[in-house]
Specification:
This protein is mainly alpha-helical and about 500 residues long. The chain is built from 20 helices and three strands. Helix 9 (about 205-220) runs antiparallel to helix 12 (about 305-320), helix 10 (about 255-270) packs across helix 11 (about 290-300) and helix 14 (about 355-370) crosses helix 15 (about 375-390). The chain is globular. The termini are far apart.
Length: about 500
Amino acid sequence: METHSDYQELTSLLKRLDRLGSIGGLLGWDEQVNLPSASTGLRAEQNAVFTEIYHREASSPKIGDLLNRLEEAKDQLSPDQAAVIRDARKNFDRLTRIPAEFAARRAKSQSIAFKAWVKARKANDFNDFQPYLEEQLQFARQEAEYMGAAHAYDYWVDRFDPGMNCSTIERLFSELQPELQAIVQHILACPEQPDTSMFKGFPIGEQENFLRQVVESMGFDFDRGRLDVAIHPFCGGHGQDTRMTTRFHEDNPLDSLSSSMHETGHALYEQGLPDEFAGTALGEAVGMAVHESQSRMWENQVGRSRAFWKYWEPVYRETFPSQLARVSSEELYRAINKVGLTPIRVDADEVTYNLHIMIRFELEKRLFDGSLDSRDMPAAWNETSTRILGYTPKNDSEGCLQDVHWSGGAFGYFPSYCLGNIIGAQLWYTLREQLPDLDDQIAGNNFQPLLDWLRKHVHSRGRRLYTMAFTREVTGEELSTKYLVRYLKERYLPLYTAS
């Protein structure tokens, strides 16, 4: 059958593109982990050349011809095949409308902007980074223009979460924000606050040994993945070669643990995607919001739970005996779940974290609608942080320079983090109904039932459905903020009850 052979040829080409794209992922990983400081210029040129090659291959007329023929025979396609054609067409149209020269220039500029961001953050001077931010904004606007997008920011939101748009996010965030602020106010008014002064002098070698045990017990396959150190924790690479990073501080040991569990959540999703369908909608994640639902669930619902620490507390105490000698189990648990106003998003507790995202969402909208000039970002950031979070940053590094995303032109990515928390909470209550003994399993360091559930209901599904439809099918309900509010109240209010 001609349709069958056309489909087989298309999926073979798409898998080849997946393999080619994974090379670019390794270049990006190496840039943030191993690249010598004086090699930035070379890597920028390498990225530009690679992007040109990928762009040429991915926009090949052969792919367009196959898509045209398959779309003409759409009545002969299965639902799975139709999903593959849908996404392949979307990607092909984007690449054919965007000039290869433009894509190469943008890739080169992002490498340069990343190094500029690292330098500006260290120097605590936004003015040094502002021209690079403005350049990335211009690239982002131009790409949306190439695509004929009516609203540039909607285009970028959809790039990270297909099918999602700004108005849907605004509705969810407007429901969630007052609920979060009320919880934070209740907690801050509590006279007894957890003491975190115990977290001093935790040797880095022991931290790494401990977190590697945790990561492996969660199910991460070190035979096709690795864990390294970077300035900003991330997960990259490919399901068959997954690269994670974390960072270490002797006086903040929970940072390395929580970031490693977070990135492992991403990695487990990637390692659980069916490689036989790589490069197609059947072998890709739904979007970044669902991806974040996995990472945030492992980091928070699991990693901050009493069940998790029932098993791991003795191991932690054995690893750091002198540091925890005078700390009770309840004091340790409360410290792990401390809520407070902190400037840095990646260090924030899971209650205030979502408010950090709302700050960035509002600022990105304003950058794209023209009501905020990038030169005015420090003042705008500080005002928005004060209004939404209740915290005014003391300097640029603790404010508008803290995140790496804008140096790479990743506008529209930030909402995925909060959306991920919303989706993760809804998934959490769904899976707990189906796994009634989950707490006992976690307390016994048996994560397999949880991972098996996620493999079946999330990872193996690929991107057959987009975010809203996916959530509705898996949980039986429309996406709602009520489950995240419920979870946060159940987890935190009992810890912050006035005596």
